[in-house]
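It is worth pausing here to work through a concrete case rather than discussing structure prediction in the abstract. The textbook approach is simple: state the sequence, then state the predicted structure, then interpret. We follow exactly that order.
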Amino acid sequence: MEIHLIWTQDRQGAIGQEGARPSDLPEDTLRFTELTEHSPIIMGKKTWDYLNKRALSSQQTVVITRQLAPEGNGRVTFVHTMDEALAVLQAVEPEHCFIIGGAYTFKTAMPYATRLLVTCVDTQLPHPDAFAPSISPLHWNQVSESPWLTGKNGVKFFYKEFARVTDV
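Step two, the predicted structure:
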């Protein structure tokens, strides 16, 4: 199973401030939906709360929480670690899954990740409290970058994609 991390970051690499994202970009939301809609999702508890405690579409959703895990409902499973989350998804044998946040979940997922899908927005959160993981060129090759685009809301942005460096 390939493990893809997907996030939006501002100019300083921030992905959030008190639960808010760097930008409300309709084009990014559409891209996120198109990329993830048929794949299982892993997220942290804060992201789950931000999404009003609901699964996205019909995907299998795994929520990582340090709290007492509530009972899932079939589409949603609660676990305590990234290893447990990946084990839940291995059982359904998907081609790939998406990790959608937040910062701590991204950090714990980086050793397992095979691809990073990053939207860079030309905004800056005033007091960010969550940051994207570092992308070391020792571990990651940038495989694509879009030109600068302008969203319907006037926000400038571009996409970058990275693949894990593999030993030959």
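Step three, interpretation. The longest strand covers residues 156-164. Residues 44 and 105 are 6 Å apart (CA to CA).
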